[in-house]
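Why does residue order matter? Because the sequence determines the fold. Keep that principle in mind as you read this record.
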Amino acid sequence: MFVGILMIIMGISHLKKKDFFIGKGTEAFIGKDKFPSFQKGLVLPYFLTGTIIFCMGIVENIAILQTSIYITLYIIVGIIPVVLLIANNKKHTGRYFFWVKSN
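Structure:
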C-alpha cells in the first residue's frame, strides 16, 4: 500500500507542476514548451495507479477474492493507466516509449 501512496504523491507533484520525479534529461528531450502539457498528462495515470495499488492492497489483506480472480482483475484494471501513459508519451514525443527511436 506504500507504493500506492507514493504514486498518489507523484500524481499530486505533477498536478502542482513540480518536477521532483522527472529527470532533467526527460525535460530536455520533450522541450520546455511541451513539458507542462506532458506533465499534466501524467496526473491521471499516476492517480489511477496509486488508487488501484492501494485498493488492491486492501482487497489482498481482507482476502475476499480467489488468487486467480485477484491477479486477473489486477491485470485488467492495471492496463488502463499503462495505456494512458503510453498515449501521453506518443502525444508529446511522437514515440510510444522514450527509449525507442522513431524513423
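The helical segments are 2-15, 24-30, 35-62, 67-93.
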